[in-house]
Amino acid sequence: MLLKLLIFLLPVLWRSASCAQSRTNLLIRKYELDVNSSKIMQKDDRKLMQKWADDYQFKRLDISMKYRLQMVKHQEHSLGGNGNVVWVNCLYAHRTETRRTVSLYHDHEHECLKTAASRDVTMRENVEQLEKQIANWRKGYRYLQNKCNDENVGNTRAMHQCLVRYMQNDNFDEVIHRLVLLKLGAMNDLYAYYNSSLRELEECLKTQLSRYLERIRAVLDTLYKCYNIKT
Prior knowledge:
Keywords: Signal. The protein is an all-alpha fold.
């Protein structure tokens, strides 16, 4: 009877052992896939972030030049010499106000650009910090792999079982997935920041151009009074 029971259980036990071994092998392949995928992702993400940064810098320059050119256009139109000696004399007499108006625009333009880029470093560092944590996870995996190799020299099956035990301890094998999701979130935040920063820069420069035009009108009032007195 016992012999018959053993004969009956042997296939079941074999299948169980085979299933356990198959599951171990699947987990080992999964770990290796996580390691290799995270390396590829890091490389691709860095290229993407560099493209975002380059586009951001180009668009910042484009926006600032657009308003700078409008400022210069109004300056030349409103404060040009036009060949009239009296007008030129008035311009010279009030050159301090004219220069101050232009200087103020440049100062405020600089502040707009500075404010727009104020969180650039922080947002990129958030992504880079998560990249470092992912790299540390890979180092941790390789450390455990080497440890199991040393403990089970020449026994691949035992080495794999050892590695699975270590990886499942404190759910270390799941940490990589949480880190990748956090990194994707940080990258989405970085991309959203670039877009919102450009919108805020445009609004800021638009406001400063409007204030510049108000100051130009005030200077023109002074120049017209000067001109009328001299003529």
